[in-house]
Amino acid sequence: MDDQMNCPQCNSEHAYNDGSLWNCPECGHEWNPEAAGAAGTEAAAEPGVRDANGNMLSDGDSVTVIKDLKVKGSSLVVKGGTKVKNIRLVDGADGHNIACKIDGIGAMNLKSEFVKKA
């Protein structure tokens, strides 16, 4: 097995082997290089927006927020477990690739890594 491996999620070079899994101390990502190799080629062949679990997202889907998110420039917080309906996929330069409206907050953009398909 490789003694040096970069994290596939954040490309950190500080990843370390912990038994059968590799761990990244910077982003907390865990992966199995043998399983990730097969899944990684499949994901690269299929471009698109994926949720935190790797499911493909499309316009009009409903998603659930997986952790509390602070709303930038406000004291509001989107609580984990909030269901968001009728999302639109956008190409945001800042990494926010979901446009939506959240009840009680209004229109906002989210990153797909903080949602799961409902």
UniProtKB/TrEMBL annotation:
Region span, Disordered: 36-57
Biased composition (Low complexity): 36-47
Domain (Protein YjdM N-terminal): residue spans on this chain: 6-32
Pfam families in the cross-refs: YjdM, Zn_Ribbon_YjdM
Domain Protein YjdM C-terminal stretches: 49-118
Family: Belongs to the YjdM family.
Name listed for the protein in its UniProt record: PhnA protein
